[in-house]
Amino acid sequence: MFEFEFMQRAFIVGSILAILLPLVGLPVTLKRLSQMGDTLAHASLAGVAAGLCFGFHPLLGSVIACIIGVLSVQAISDKLPAYQEISTVVVLAFAIGCAGIFTGFAGNGAQVTSFLFGSIVTISDTEFYLVIVISALVCIAYRIIATRLYLATFDSVAAQFLGINERVLAFVFSLLVAASISLAAKTIGSLIVSSLLVIPTLCAMQLFRTYRSVLLGGIAFSLAFVYCGLCISYYGNLKPGSVIVLLAVVVLVITLVLKRKLS
Hints:
Layout lengths: L4 H26 L3 H21 L3 H22 L5 H22 L2 H9 L7 H30 L1 H6 L4 H23 L4 H13 L5 H26 L3 H23 L1
C-alpha cells in the first residue's frame, strides 16, 4: 500500500487533519456549536461549486466560502441577538441554494461529488501543499489563543475580568474552524466533515475527564479512525471518507455502551 505515492500523501494529509480537527472540535463541542460545523461544511461545498463554475481552484473557493459563512453568521447574530441559533440555519440554507445553482453551471459532476464524499487519495500537488501551509497557520494561531480560548470556554466572567475580548476571540476561532473544515472537505467530504469534527472528542469524553486528556484522546481517536479507514478503503475499494466516519460512529457507540455498563 505504501509503495504508491497517492497513499503516502493520503496518510500525510490524513494525519495533519486528524490532529487539526480535534483541536478546533473540542471547543466547538463544549460550546455546543456543532451546528456551525455543519453550516460551514455546506458553505465549503458552495465554494467548491463556485470555483468550478468561475474557473478558480475549488479548494481556494472552499476556504473563501467558509470565511464568508463565518462573517455572515456573525453579522446575523449581531442583528438578532435573541435568536443567535437562527443565523446558522439561514447561512446553511443559503449555502445549499448556492451550491445547487453553481453545480448546475459547473458541468463537472465528478469533482463536486469528490467534495461531497471525500477524495483524499486523489489529492493534487497544489492541494497537498495548500493543506500543509494552511494547517500550519491554523495550528500557530490556535496555539496563540489556546489559553484565552480555554478560559473563555469554562469561565466567561473571569475572561472578561482579565480583559479578554470574547467577541474578537470567538471571531478568530470561527475563522480557524472555517479553515479546518474547508481543508477537511476534500479529505472526508463536505457532507460528513462535521461528524469527524465532533465524534473523536465525544469518544474521548467517555474515557477522560480533564481538558488536556480529552484533547489528546480526541486526537488519538481521530488518528486511529483515519489510519484504519484508509487501510480498509484501500483493500476494500471503498470511499475513504465514508469508511472513516462510519468507524468513528461505531467506536462512539461502543464507548457509550461500555461507559454505561461500567458506571
